[in-house]
Amino acid sequence: AKERGKGRHAVYDARLEQDQAADAQLGAELRQALDNGDFTLVYQPIVSLPDGKWTSLETLVRWQHPERGFVGPDVFIPIAERTGLIVPLGDWILRTALRQAAEWQDVFGSGAPAEIGVNVSARQLREPGFAADVRAALADSGFDPEKLVVEVTETAVFDGGVALDTLQNLVTLGVKVALDDFGTGHSSLGLLRTCPADTLKVDKSFVDGIGGRSEEAVIATAMIQITNGLHLQAIAEGVETAEQAETLYRLGYRFAQGYHFSRPLTPAQVGERLEAARVL
Ligand code: C2E
Ligand code: CA
Ligand code: CA
Ligand code: CA
């Protein structure tokens, strides 16, 4: 039995080592990419319902790999987290997004979306001095802290007290906190008592099945009741059809995001849209 166990283990170890090698390879390439300037940011609007007006832009990172082409964040963010590169990468993302948002504010004034959202990973939240880094980035950009929304997942916050302390420090700066992918973590409801969140981003998986009398529709309804009762804001994520948008509005949702309204846009595309809206 011992032999068999060992054999199984060897197979598992081999696979693990292979993954670790692949991780290490990609990790090194990520570091190189940051130095080379191969990351770019795109921005996806969050809109108010039912008028579809932009209220906020969520910052999403992209990696243009010299040989592999486009590599999505679902692939490289977890590796950046494991290797620790998310800390300098996240700092670059935050600073670039704040600089960009400050520029749109300068050019378009009240025509620019009120807020900018930036995703922050668990690893960043646990990094000592993260709140101080955010404060420094805000000061350097001249961007109003109250217009920055930090998006964190339930799982990242559930990790423990350090993350909560950091969020509290951010709130003290005036920064807003959104709980991302809400409903997919383990700790959803209890967390609402301790986490200083302003906004819940209701995960796409609930929006997908929202038609009719599905369980998802029941959950989406309960979530809007909870957010209203706790005086939080709810944003429905991943809205792909007009029908979903209408159903969400009927259920009480006033903010949404998804391909139905807009795909993530390059900075130039955002500028064009804001310019067009200004001329109207
Ligand atoms: P997320 O924060 O939940 O971001 C939303 C993701 O859903 C984005 O994918 C967005 O393009 C996609 N999406 C938006 N609307 C729709 C829709 O209607 N239908 C579908 N099918 N998808 C939609 P993206 O940009 O590939 O990002 C994936 C994940 O990678 C993000 O999920 C986030 O967890 C992570 N990520 C992206 N950018 C960053 C970043 O700058 N920092 C960190 N730490 N994580 C990031
Ligand atoms: Ca997000
Ligand atoms: Ca999300
Ligand atoms: Ca997600």
From TrEMBL:
Record carries keyword Iron: no
The EAL domain, residue ranges: 23-278
Keywords from the UniProt entry: Membrane, Transmembrane, Transmembrane helix
Top-level lineage group: Bacteria
Protein name: Diguanylate cyclase (GGDEF) domain-containing protein
Organism: Actinoplanes nipponensis
Full-length numbering of the shown residues: 500 to 779 of 781
